[in-house]
Design a protein that fits this description.
Length: 87
């Protein structure tokens, strides 16, 4: 069996378990299926790049939200929502 996603507190899930898990998004399932059809080294490198890009995007949104929702700058839900959609 092919093992995939491994979390420190969980047993490894098989590819079949991942693809049938209703808690995993279709987007991620499609990405995993596509990755399994590629060279594993290339897929892993791209996975690391994707993780880095998404992590940086998350950090930018969180930092912008904190700045825009700072009481000293004047709060407004519309400003926080707008910051989240800018990325």
């Amino acid at each position: 069996m092919i093992s995939a996603v491994v979390h420190a507190s969980e047993s490894p899930q098989t590819l079949k378990q991942i693809l049938t898990d209703p808690n995993i998004s279709s987007w991620l399932k499609d990405a995993i299926k596509a990755a399994y059809e590629r060279d594993p080294v290339d897929a892993l490198r791209d996975g690391h790049r994707l993780l880095k890009v998404l992590g940086e995007r998350y950090t930018q949104i969180v930092n912008q939200t904190r700045v825009l929702s700072d009481p000293s700058l004047g709060t407004g839900d519309h400003r926080v929502a707008k910051a989240a959609t800018l990325q």
